[in-house]
Amino acid sequence: MISRLRALWNNAFHRKQLDRDLDEELEAYVELVAAEKLQAGMGPEEAHSYARRQTGGKDQVVQNVRDVRTGVWLDRLLQDVHFGVRTLAKNPTFFLIAVGTLALGIGANSAMFSLLDQVVLRLLPVRHPEQLVIVKEAGNHYGNSFGPNTMSWPMFEDLRDRNQVFSEMFCRFPASLAIGYHDQTVQIPAELVSSAYFQTLGVEAVLGRTIGRDDDSIPDGKPVVVLSYSFWQSYFGGDRNAIGRTISLNGYVMTVIGVVQPGFDGLELGVPAKVFVPIMMKTEMTPHSDGLKDRRRRLSWVTTYGRLKPGISMKQAQASLQPLLHSILEMEVQQPEFTRSATAADREPFLRNRIELLPGSDSDLREYMRRPLWILLALTAAVLLLACANLANLLLARATSREKEFAVRLAIGAGRVRIVRQLLVESLLLSGAGAVVGLTLAYVADRILLRIYLPADATVEFVVSPIPDGRMLAFTLGVMLLTSLAFGLLPAMGASRTEITLALKDRSGAASAGGMSLRRLLVSIQVALSLLLLVGAGLFVRTLRNLENVGSGFPTDHLLTFATAPTLSGYSFAETKSYYDRLNVNLETMPGVTSVGFSTMPILRGYAWQNAIVGKDFEGTPIEQQPVLSQVSPNYFATLGIPIVAGRAFSTQDVAPTDYAVVNESFAKEYFPGRNPLGQRFGLVSDSESVTPKTEVIGVIPDRKYRDLRETPPPQAYFPYLADSNVRGMTVYVRTQADPRQFKDALRERMRQFDPHVAVVDLQTVSEQIGFSLRTERLVAGLSAVFGCVAMLLAVIGLYGVMAYAVLRRTREIGIRIALGALRSNVIAMIMREVLLLIGSGLAAGGALALVLVNLIHSQLYGLNARDPLTFIGSAIVLASAAGLAGFIPALRASGVDPTTALRQE
Amino acid sequence: MAGIESDLLQGTLDVLILKALALQELHGMGISRRIGQMTNGTFDVKPGSLFPALHRMEEAGWLTSNWGQAETNRRAKFYALTRTGRKQLQTETERWARISFAMAAALGIGQEAL
What we know:
Oligomer: heterodimer
Structural class of chain B: alpha+beta
Largest interface: A-B, 28 and 23 residues
CATH topology of chain B: Arc Repressor Mutant, subunit A
Number of strands of chain B: 3
Shape of chain A: globular
Radius of gyration of chain A: 38 Å
Distance between the termini of chain A: 60 Å
Mean pLDDT of chain A: 86
Mean pLDDT of chain B: 83
CATH class of chain B: Mainly Alpha
Structural class of chain A: alpha+beta
Helix content of chain A: 40-55%
């Protein structure tokens, strides 16, 4: 082994010396043979010539020795690279076009992969992340739910104590906490965690300690907090004496016990937690909402995680947990809180609930971004494939002009394998250069995309970074190798089949027809791929257009919004009520403000408060059809510009809890069909008491979107704000006279003066909010449009290249035709027939492929059919005209061939 | 002299070179002559196969080389066995013993002599 390495080293770096030695060794051999013959009595002349003959051609011997040297392949590779560089340098235009095309293709793929990897593929930065799973109770909920992956605290305790499959379990609850920062109050994202959180994850403290069992045994027992590394840096300036100091969260004094390792920001991608608090402090951290102490089994709020025992698969664990869940559910349906709030029809489906295990790295953002990012990566892959087809075409054309070179090399004894290898090395050089430039482009592209995509204040701490890492480099390397094979292999194989005798005769471009049919096939593939991309672009752009056109259903210009939560600053319900009363007056008298509205639920942000209702003619509501609810101020509808179509809006006198309601038309149609909804009554189902339908409908509004722009407006019911005494926070809507963007700073200052202790959250115009909610659609539409245009351009260039070459080759034939009396129009028709055949076959193949593939993007579309004929036909027409035009130029040139010059050629 | 080209059997040349060097170090021509002697002139190793083999075996660590004086006072490269080379010779000898015995039995060479 060592001698091999030494040989490799010597062969690589002491070649000259080795060759000199070999030379001398062979000289010595010849002389020794000659000397032997001299001794045997031969004459000196004769002896020497005999010796030389014996040696049999010194060069051949030297070559044979070189061929067995260790690392000879490296040697040859270097030769190939050297030769490749020289060949490419001879034609810088070709080199630049090829590298540029590849850089765009590879760069786009690397950029997309980097985002996909960081947002969707990567596991959590914890110990053995592959063992970590989210335990989800899938199926129907019959109470309040904080999201699809949540369960109740007692359910978590039961699973934790009675399961057989996890070595540890913990749960968490994300919360926003108020904290004083200089002279103002802000909200920071936090995680309330059960005691096993850090131990199970294997996340350590760099300073102090993490939360342990002792910190999380008694409710309200230990007011302690662990800081994230970045928060420790920004809030305490990285002070090592921070341990033992106190910070005020929601007005509660909490002792800092530790700082976690850098890079760990909690388990929710895109919402980096700044502090970690024992879940036993829930009452203090989420005032007036306490699923921990009242132990209601109908309130799902914790996200539960488990670490699989070694050797247990997710499937086994799921199967083992199912009977356990079922026995718990059997117990739950007996409880009065279930029987009171659920209908008999709810019971059976509820008992069919099941345990689902998800990868521990799953999060809302991941779920939401998965499909769009995969689609974009698929689009970039298609663009790269197109670029490869173009390059393959270019290389085929080059190979034709290099036939003589190959023939000469074959004739003097180069193996065909050697020629294939030589050409592949050239391809590799091209794609290597393309990859290097592409990585730079990817970095720039990711920076721009992140800046467009993320809210301005999130970029600083967001875990997605444009800087290439090992995984991205590996991906790029893989793409580079595949790419060079994709565009280099066919031309290389073709070149190695060069017929020596034919090629060496000067045939001036009368090249074999074999290459042409391959090139035509490549062009058809290009047309097919670009049709695919154009259709995709058309569908996504029209989806975005549709979403922007449906809009919110109310005028969003001149509308500002923000949220406050006084209870997070230690305000009681009474104080909160008075806060909003005063705020209403304060803002309505602010110069430039037209009107002010409050709502407990923000609109078009994906949130919904749902509850079952009862009425005289209907009993309970199946879970899926529960109406969405909100509590709003008297001026809410006027501020948003939503008209009252029947009855009246709330007045300041409507304060009694759930006496009056305003409903939308869908609600009226659903629950009071064929009747005048005004004066009808219904009640909200509660688990703590039985309810009589006493809430009277006093007004009806038209249907408006509630959760997001994509939904069909659900039945909605509104109650007077502050009527219910348990208001914790409100979203505020302010309609302004002038441009609301100019009004933001004044409003923020007004709020600070009004009450510096209450944080103002998400202050923005409603247009900005809606625009932001469409950012993924905008990203996909924008990028797919760019990719579609690039694809079309590549296909058109490819088609032009092939047709121009075909015409050039047939100049003589065309000349003869014209000389024999063919009309110019006949020539044009002849060439265009070929062009249209190429385009037609490409369109047919691409169209068929697109009809199948649109199924994959179906869920991302809005307001149009995935097989939308307008998009399909429109894309085909655009592509066909562009490609037809590109084909018409060579046809026109062909018709202009002068027969006399054409015939004199050759 | 009936010369047999040395690539007759895979590995023949290697074991002959090893054997030639078993007693003393030799230069290239010396190895060629020694093999001729050992095989009663059956194998006439030409430089075109000899030198690649020598260099290959040196890189494999079976041989070492150094420059010395040949009989005509000419500088020549002498090869010698290394410890690995000696071990290799032993393995190869055993292998060849097995093969030649098997071949002889298969072709009935021994019986003819009887």
